[in-house]
Amino acid sequence: ANPSLTAAVVVVTGLVGANFVQATLDKLRFSDPIARGIATASRYFR
């Protein structure tokens, strides 16, 4: 696979996932910024 394409897909996936998880955490009423940050980082930025 093309390394540039792979890098772009990884970045886009991470950004989309980070935005999606924020909306999900809002619906679940998670308001603690530390918990939100850990949830976002552990799920989409491995």
UniProtKB/TrEMBL annotation:
Keywords: Membrane, Transmembrane, Transmembrane helix. The keyword rRNA-binding does not apply. GO terms for cellular component: membrane. It comes from the Eukaryota. Coiled coil: none annotated. This is Plastidal glycolate/glycerate translocator 1 chloroplastic-like. PANTHER family: PLASTIDAL GLYCOLATE_GLYCERATE TRANSLOCATOR 1, CHLOROPLASTIC, PUTATIVE SEROTONIN TRANSPORTER. InterPro entries: CidB/LrgB. It holds the Pfam family LrgB. Its main location: membrane. It is a multi-pass membrane protein. It comes from Trifolium medium.
